[in-house]
Every structure is written in C-alpha cells, then in structure tokens.
Amino acid sequence: MLWCMVMNLYLLTEWVLGISLKGTGHKMFKSCFSLLCQGISPDELKDELPERQPRFIVYSYKYQHDDGRVSYPLCFIFSSPVGCKPEQQMMYAGSKNKLVQTAELTKVFEIRNTEDLTEEWLREKLGFFH
After folding, report:
1. Across the strands, what pairs with 38?
2. What is the total count of domains within the chain?
3. Fewest CB within 10 A of the end CB: N or C in the chain?
C-alpha cells in the first residue's frame, strides 16, 4: 500500500532532538504530521503541499523495475519552494540531516518548485539507486 506523510517542522524537531514537551517521543512523532495520506500519487501530493512553506515528506512509492520486479522504496523529500521565508527555509534545512539520520532514510531528495513533483521526476530520481 502506498502512503505519504507530510511533516511540520516545529513538533518534529522536538521529537528528532529527543525533547518531549507533550509526552512520550512516540506520541510526539505521531503529532508532527500535518498530512497523512494513503494511496496518493506524486501528482496528487503536490496539490496538498503549501506553495510558500517548506515541508518534509516521507513517501512510500510503488517502483516498477525494468526487469518486472516491484519495490516500495521509502523516499524523503524536502520541499522548500522559492518564495518561502528565509527563516523557515533555514530552520527546515538545519533539521533535515538529523531527521534523515535518525530515521535512517537513504532516498533523500529536494524540490524547490512543488509543480516539479511528478511521477516522472520521482522515477528519474529513484532510477539513480537501481
């Protein structure tokens, strides 16, 4: 099953750094998602993203290999659209590496224009790993 999580930095940072102001780390992690979707395509996902605010996205994608195999890579996408407030961009960018390291994510991509988030773009990025 395909799924996607779009994360808000403010609560997520507390979880990643191990600071829990509202309960256990697990509860904090669950509360940091601004959007949790199932069965959403990359094209549908871009319509859910704010045009002028950064977001972290964890996306499970059904990848059809050239030899017929199917895999479901877990992709981390940092959306930092042009026109975001510089303070927000710096806060998200400064937290990205710690989050990726803590969650042990290996397929990490960045996007500056939400309109570029398409199935073709994601397949091209994932093609590098296969």
Report:
1. 3
2. 1
3. N
